[in-house]
Hints:
Elements: H1 2-21, H2 31-39, E1 47-49, H3 51-54, E2 79-82, E3 91-94, E4 112-116, E5 122-124, H4 126-129, E6 137-143, E7 152-157, E8 162-166, E9 171-173, H5 175-178, E10 188-194, E11 203-208, E12 227-228, E13 231-232, E14 246-250, E15 256-258, E16 273-279, E17 288-293, E18 299-303, E19 309-311, H6 313-316, E20 329-335, E21 344-349, E22 356-360, E23 366-368, E24 383-389, E25 398-403, H7 410-413, E26 424-428, E27 434-436, H8 443-446, E28 451-457, E29 466-471, E30 477-481, E31 488-495, E32 507-512, E33 516-520, E34 535-540, E35 545-551, E36 557-561, E37 568-572, E38 577-578, H9 581-589
Parallel strand pairs: 31-37
Antiparallel strand pairs: 1-30, 2-3, 3-4, 4-5, 6-7, 7-8, 8-9, 10-11, 11-14, 12-13, 14-15, 16-17, 17-18, 18-19, 20-21, 21-22, 22-23, 24-25, 25-26, 26-27, 28-29, 29-30, 31-34, 32-33, 32-35, 35-36, 36-38
Amino acid sequence: MFNLTFACLGLAWLLFIAPLFLPLIPMKLSAGDAAQSQQDQTPLPDFIDVAEKAGLRATNVFGGKQSSTYILESTGTGVAIFDFDNDGWPDIFFVNGTTLDGSQSETPPTNHLYRNNHDGTFTDVTEKAGLRASGWGQGVCVGDYDNDGWEDLHITYFGRNRLYHNLGGAFQEVAGKSGVLGSKKAWGSGCAFVDYDRDGRLDLFVANYAQFDLAHASLPGQYPSCLWKGIAVFCGPRGLAGDSNTLYRNLGNGQFQDVTSTAGINKTPGHYCFSVSTLDFDNDGWPDIYVACDSAPSILYHNRRDGSFSDIGIFSGVAYNVDGREQAGMGAAVADYNGDGKLDIFRTNFSDDTPTLYRNNGDGTFDDVTHSAGVGFHTRYLGWGTAFLDFDNDGWPDLLQVNGHVYPEVDALKLGIEYCEPKVLYRNNGNGTFRDISRSAGSAISRPSSARGLAVGDLWNDGRLAAVIVNRNEAANLLVNRATYPNHWIAFKTIGTRSNRSGIGARLILKTDSRTQIDEVRSGSSYISNNDVRVHFGLGASTKVEHLEVRWPSGLMEHFRNPAVDTIVVVKEGSGEAIEAAKLNSHAAK
Length: 590
């Protein structure tokens, strides 16, 4: 009895004093816990809009301002960040639209190219660059399709598409003679350059929205599909005939061949497709294609490695949401948001719904983790452009979504829904979840607009990612974060030799003393837009990169050891330390 009592008293005494010494015991935090601890001491961002000051003054023109008669007037346009003149500084290209009577205007709206002046400002060089063009412009994607070292532009339209060949800083329109003009009746939307067959030449994927005849289109309220919350609105997309997407194979002589049928792309027709994002979701070395679709199941084209694709969107879990319901997808973004070495997908959707975050399970399937990850609270907003961006360079990609309704009439109807909507910014907690910091992230985030396209990039080569936003029938936004952080960063510009010159499709694996990060060089994505193709990594407190591993589209895998931090590093295929085939095969199998 004495021994038992003594033991009990001893245990009680131990339980009493143990908490006093716990703070003195060193504990190892997980990467996620460390990120969360660091964030508690990190300033919130302060995004401001500097578009006017920077010289981005052109106004987007797209359909009616007070009302929209047809669905064609609602979709808006995209934007691309790319270095058109090879001076090392990213420039900005805006796609523009028109109005129903636009052909009658003396000075019809045009696309705009702005050259980076290296001092925080931009100059409109549209005319000089040969890019003045009018029409119902839609999306844009960037890639060096002829491997001459100059990035080219593909622009989708309602009607004929356009391909601009970069001739050293000036452009020549070559869609017709290159074979990518498309049908006069087509409605192109998103696009992406991708070397799907890994032959070293960039091919072209074009998403198509619907078959739409403006001359015979139904008027608002004419059919049940032309009503929304009891009010007459433009008709569609339901009730419109869908259309198949298009894949063009690069033949290597300035010519493309339409391989839509032989590649199996047309086996998934009629899906009202918008944005195109390329990603090697299963890490087999072959690029796959994700397409966000409106009012229909989204598509995941799995590369079968034989020149063809199969749509596994339903099987993989990225066609519907967790409830098995199709959504009205608009834009999409790709990143390894939770640091597990697998690329995940985020998609924006129509209002009265949440966006969707799909976590890659690494076995060919994805889970809808929208609510558990903390991005499923907003059902009011209609999302369009979206991008992962590490605004504080802590090594965990944050998430930006821009919004805007499609019915200008809602403001006058007092439904509690506004046509112009604020942006949403989620901070990555580093543990697989996000925190909505929109209300504390600066005036540019909270300011409402009818946003559409979005592109992000390091416009001033200083490690700060900026965001360029297209607003329907308004001037653009250029969002810059005024907050400063002690964290480090590194970015990479890829140059292919055996692979395509842009390095599009290359997978980058970055190893520091604390963790490993991955991303891929990508054309297209967001909402019918194109981000800066240079791959950016935040490093947090790390001051050294152990090595960068690059898996090129050609299959070559290389190490680049000890690249300098806080700078943009050029990596050229063949200049690194080659990794033996055995390790390459082992890595691809993981």
